[in-house]
Amino acid sequence: MSSESARSGKPRNRSDEKPLRLALLGCGTVGSEVIRLLHDQAGDLTARIGAPLEIVGVAVRRLGRARGDLPVDPDLFTTDALGLVKRDDVDVVVEVVGGIEPARTWLVEALRAGKSVITANKALLAEDGAALHDAAADGNADLYYEASVAGAIPLLRPLRESLHGDRVTRVTGIVNGTTNFILSSMDSTGAGFSEALEEATELGYAEADPTADVEGFDAAAKAAILASLAFHSRVTAADVFREGMTGVTAGDMASAKEMGCTIKLLCIAERGPDSAGHESVSVRVHPAMIPYSHPLAGVGDAFNAVFVEADAAGQLMFYGRGAGGTPTASAVLGDIVAAARNRLGGFRAPSESNYAHLPVRPIGEAVTRYHINLDVDDKPGVLAAVAGVFAKHEVSIATVRQSGREDDAKLVIVTHGAPDANLAATVESLSQLDIVRSIASVLRVEGGA
Amino acid sequence: MSSESARSGKPRNRSDEKPLRLALLGCGTVGSEVIRLLHDQAGDLTARIGAPLEIVGVAVRRLGRARGDLPVDPDLFTTDALGLVKRDDVDVVVEVVGGIEPARTWLVEALRAGKSVITANKALLAEDGAALHDAAADGNADLYYEASVAGAIPLLRPLRESLHGDRVTRVTGIVNGTTNFILSSMDSTGAGFSEALEEATELGYAEADPTADVEGFDAAAKAAILASLAFHSRVTAADVFREGMTGVTAGDMASAKEMGCTIKLLCIAERGPDSAGHESVSVRVHPAMIPYSHPLAGVGDAFNAVFVEADAAGQLMFYGRGAGGTPTASAVLGDIVAAARNRLGGFRAPSESNYAHLPVRPIGEAVTRYHINLDVDDKPGVLAAVAGVFAKHEVSIATVRQSGREDDAKLVIVTHGAPDANLAATVESLSQLDIVRSIASVLRVEGGA
């Protein structure tokens, strides 16, 4: 125990000083930071929990890598993660390895054995969260995963525990820092996607292979986790409609600005009736224009933010760092303290809430709005012909702007909300009109723009 | 149970169908909304908790007031709040009356008897939270008060439970919707305080007697609650330095804008060394200039937001509706579900964490920055004389702007951070200089402007 804890006296509510024993799976950026924080804040953590935390093993892929500066006994490193998880003297398992396997095997084993599990593994939770939740139920064990979405931002606990007296109707998030950095840079400098990506890579905001970020896979996994919590239903990554942001051009950003908007890669989860009128959820990730007046528009740099709408609470937003070793470790530590307190008190955290069993409706049934930029012939009757296509697909037009240039003209059309399938069919039909020379861009519009 | 719950089947984790019995103290704006939500969302709440909630009594000041449209049996109303609290068939007490007494007596009684208490009573928590926390410890009972600060925004649970693995260094909040509405209006329209207050009153954002809001009493109570949670120490309303915002003029707002800033009424709680180097906390409420680039600057209308800085998590912000019957009821409902789940599981929520016992340092020792607007004689040597006063009080000047007008001139000085006492002494000394004709305004500056 550090001197700080000694100075502040014995914790008030508990005198149990038997340590809680942690197994750490993974010792990369986040894992190292978890070790450092557990060491540096030992006194405070002991006072808050009522007992000290002790690392009893750290599973790594290869021994012998230089980890000399970490405040942990080097003898605790092992390459046998499964063996570590199975040890009787482990109370809490912290997984910061990522990926589906072997992480799933380790965590299922730990949970079934009644060990508390803290994981930052968004891919596993989004692909097969059911395996973990079921194992947690079998073992009557705690499963916490605050770090899996939006890094340091306390978001999942509020959704799980603060808003459970309310009815969440919509969650709109900027949950990928890399793409937000790129889009913020495109907005402020007028750069194109490639140029902005290059800058992000140089500054360490984008990985050498940025596919998971720019194609929206990372955001889709987080969308599935958020939708599951918000709507008390099981939603997996496969349920999420996903469109990346590599197609967003400098021209799109300029068009957005003309409308008083910026473009963000959004994850959107909402509940509402499907085409047959049954309550269902729609979960999607795609770039979209949002007005500058929307709180999400001001989320710059690599920050994350999640905007939540609920019947009684109204509009809420949670903002902070979505990635990075230290912010992610903050979320992991918060979960460790919660799990440790629960073990000492003989409690269990609220378990998975999936009673609502809401089905996921396809993207075609999601109500969206389109911003369509057309190059058309500049002759009488063009607007009538174009408007006729929208009418045929039962899409109502909100605004049209027309600007002539010699013999051709530009039409910028923003629709009212309509089923995405109708909007997509409208675009397809427009592309077949003779008078339409090209469809310069199509972007969805969110946030009441 | 509603048809929705019936449709979604039996809750997965619990089959205990014995209702949890609620006593509601108060039936005004928030209380009525709590009753309505408990009724409308009964099916969902039962599924989330594992047992139904049942209101067994509602204490009001006077019977006979028309409450006919509320979905609750009129026979449940009583004027005997203490009698209701003492009943053996009450599991959870929800207090939305406000004020110190008799609320304190009722809640202490309930907690000592082991009943779970949910309260929105910021004044009581800030003045004598110790009485409630001690009673909760005595009765081994849950005490939840999410609705007491920032209405619907899930803020206290994140501070209590998500960031307890981290070290919070600073909390900066806009926690009073009335004053934020007034200041946002002054910023956007150029109106003066009185005019903006009048508008706020007409629109229902300000009460007939706005003293508690505009003089910062409401914000100070919330600051005490936030500081206690953030720093694991007991901080009361009396510890909070408080300066209202009635002195903010249209001219101040114009000066702020020239600096790229707006003015907000902020509550600020931070930890740091006192003058003797001992770790302590500073808690204050006052108007301050913050740069438009700060996330809090964009919080308009009557919205609330709280900006949290922590060692590992970095910068976080929580945003939403801070007041109103329905948003406040959302927070109360969230606490009811948590308390109800705990009772069913035989758990107890994390109790008060005050192990750090950090002392509160006086405002004079808080490090702040000043923006000072002086009318001075326009003659050689004026700046040297003025700068000499700052140097004498060991206050470092960050920027000076001078603009001449015939025979007098205007000096706008922004300081670096210095102990507030030194800054106050500097202003006092300046007022005594012959060459200083008047001190047009003095405002603190926050947020790195």
Automatic annotation (TrEMBL), chains A, B:
<comment type="pathway">
    <text>Amino-acid biosynthesis; L-threonine biosynthesis; L-threonine from L-aspartate: step 3/5.</text>
</comment>
<feature type="active site" description="Proton donor">
    <location>
        <position position="222"/>
    </location>
</feature>
<keyword id="KW-0486">Methionine biosynthesis</keyword>
<keyword id="KW-0521">NADP</keyword>
<dbReference type="InterPro" id="IPR045865">
    <property type="entry name" value="ACT-like_dom_sf"/>
</dbReference>
<dbReference type="InterPro" id="IPR005106">
    <property type="entry name" value="Asp/hSer_DH_NAD-bd"/>
</dbReference>
<dbReference type="InterPro" id="IPR036291">
    <property type="entry name" value="NAD(P)-bd_dom_sf"/>
</dbReference>
<keyword id="KW-0028">Amino-acid biosynthesis</keyword>
<dbReference type="GO" id="GO:0050661">
    <property type="term" value="F:NADP binding"/>
</dbReference>
<dbReference type="GO" id="GO:0009086">
    <property type="term" value="P:methionine biosynthetic process"/>
</dbReference>
<feature type="binding site">
    <location>
        <position position="122"/>
    </location>
    <ligand>
        <name>NADPH</name>
    </ligand>
</feature>
<comment type="pathway">
    <text>Amino-acid biosynthesis; L-methionine biosynthesis via de novo pathway; L-homoserine from L-aspartate: step 3/3.</text>
</comment>
<feature type="binding site">
    <location>
        <position position="207"/>
    </location>
    <ligand>
        <name>L-homoserine</name>
    </ligand>
</feature>
<feature type="domain" description="ACT">
    <location>
        <begin position="371"/>
        <end position="444"/>
    </location>
</feature>
<dbReference type="GO" id="GO:0009088">
    <property type="term" value="P:threonine biosynthetic process"/>
</dbReference>
<protein>
    <recommendedName>
        <fullName>Homoserine dehydrogenase</fullName>
        <ecNumber>1.1.1.3</ecNumber>
    </recommendedName>
</protein>
<keyword id="KW-0560">Oxidoreductase</keyword>
<dbReference type="GO" id="GO:0004412">
    <property type="term" value="F:homoserine dehydrogenase activity"/>
</dbReference>
<dbReference type="Pfam" id="PF01842">
    <property type="entry name" value="ACT"/>
</dbReference>
<dbReference type="Pfam" id="PF00742">
    <property type="entry name" value="Homoserine_dh"/>
</dbReference>
<dbReference type="Pfam" id="PF03447">
    <property type="entry name" value="NAD_binding_3"/>
</dbReference>
<dbReference type="InterPro" id="IPR001342">
    <property type="entry name" value="HDH_cat"/>
</dbReference>
<comment type="similarity">
    <text>Belongs to the homoserine dehydrogenase family.</text>
</comment>
<dbReference type="InterPro" id="IPR019811">
    <property type="entry name" value="HDH_CS"/>
</dbReference>
<keyword id="KW-0791">Threonine biosynthesis</keyword>
<dbReference type="InterPro" id="IPR002912">
    <property type="entry name" value="ACT_dom"/>
</dbReference>
<keyword id="KW-0915">Sodium</keyword>
<dbReference type="InterPro" id="IPR016204">
    <property type="entry name" value="HDH"/>
</dbReference>
<comment type="function">
    <text>Catalyzes the conversion of L-aspartate-beta-semialdehyde (L-Asa) to L-homoserine (L-Hse), the third step in the biosynthesis of threonine and methionine from aspartate.</text>
</comment>
<feature type="binding site">
    <location>
        <begin position="25"/>
        <end position="32"/>
    </location>
    <ligand>
        <name>NADP(+)</name>
    </ligand>
</feature>
